[in-house]
Amino acid sequence: MTEATRSLAVADALVAVLAGVGAVAGSYAAVGLAPAFLGSPLERLLSRAMPGPVVAVAIERLGSVGQQLNLLLASLLTALALAALVWLAMRVGDQLRNRAVPVVLGAAFVWAATALVTVNFASATGAAAGAALVVSTAGFLPVATARIERGPDPVRRRVVGGVAAALGLGAVAITRSSPSTRPDQPLSADAPETVRESLELAAERSLDVAGIEPLVSRDFYQVDINAADPRVAPDDWSLSVTGAVESAATYSLDDLRSMDERTEFSTLRCVGDSLNGQKLDNALWTGVPTEELIDAADPGGDCDCVKLHAADGYYQVFPTEALRGGLLAYEMNGRDLPRGHGFPLRALVPGHWGEVQVKWLTEIEFLERDAEGYWEKRGWHGTGPVTTVAKLWAVNDLDDGRTQVAGHAYAGTRGVARVEVSTDGGGSWNEAELSDPLPGDTVEQSSTSSQTQSGNDVWRQWAYEYEHPGSRHEVVVRAVEADGTLQSGNRREAFPNGATGWVSQTVR
Fold this sequence. Notes:
The structure is a single chain. The chain is an alpha+beta fold. The chain has helices spanning about 5-30, 40-50, 50-60, 65-95, 100-120, 120-140, 145-150, 150-175, 195-205, 255, 290-295, 320-325, and strands at about 240-245, 250, 260-270, 280-290, 305-310, 315-320, 325-330, 335, 345-350, 360-365, 390, 395, 405-410, 415-420, 430, 435, 440-445, 450-455, 460-465, 475-480, 505. A 5-stranded mixed beta sheet has the order 2-1-10-5-6. α4 (about 65-95) packs antiparallel against α5 and α6 (about 120-140) packs antiparallel against α8 (about 150-175).
């Protein structure tokens, strides 16, 4: 093989790879980050194949970045697989001495493969167009001998053309906008007055402290089993109540919205949240009390357990009693649920870890016998009530020379009575300032003026100011529950039961 022949072979391989990348970009440009995106099927497969401890490390250490890296890996592997099909089409074109064959046949191969994997016409068409654009821009000549005779210039032109086309497709894909998943968009003019008043009260009761979220989170965390959230059309969606029940039923979104609704604050914490992690947030939710659907179904069975199913294939099993007092939410902070938070419906189970708060809810199945949930099969055991935690999220230097530390505290439905802070590594403790409780809390004043609350599922902010000792020191924080129970100081990692322990930080 001559040097020119080897150079052209390398160029053809590079163009094939670029065509694979172009196919992935074309699919994204057509459907966005959705289950029909070309990289999503392999990403889902990789996610489900990972052992529980690996997923735990990814959630704790990498957060959403780990999921994005998994999607990137899946997209690259998919691009390489499609590159092999394009390269095959290029070889056929060489044999037939026809420059149109690699473009047409490569696009056909990519379209068929994408349609088979994603079962989506738009995704397949976008992928085929992306691959065809790269191959055609690379400018294949009709026969191999003609390519060899022209020397290295065609090699450069081919690779440069392929790179330019792939970059152009990438730019189109990147600029493609997806629906926002942020819950802090402006309220609509027709938002109920109760919602407006509740959100205004939460803003008023939020402590004016730099570095921590207000009582209603501006940027609510997300943890999902897939990188691409499902897109559920509300007109085609329904919620089924099935299994060991006297009266099975199916509800449309309009059916649920016509029922008596409830609006309440509720805090969610991810079971994979590290001790001082950021996967803890609060919002105002509106929906149907789950008890109404439970009573209508009249469940039986021997295990007294229920399985919630989601549109993305996720499911969770927990005691039926835990679902009572919960909410089937269709609004978040006065607006329809964002796609990333479960549109059109999600479950809220008071005081339990975030993993049981199933999003994109499609079915409530009452079981005859107990079963393992999605994460339990992967080694987690987080379906029970959350553990109590006081987070230390801010250390601020004040204008008067004092130091301020602050964060949030959460104890599920047990409620937070107070937060205690030590600035000498646990040698002595002082009570921090707490934000006033949100509506629905039961508050009592004790002889020590500390606040005790119960029957709520809402976090509270805390802040403490002190004179800096002038040297490095250890700040430790802990919460006390409504009945006086002190937060456990026993430190453990999130996997498999949720993190516990007192948060500490060295302050200089």
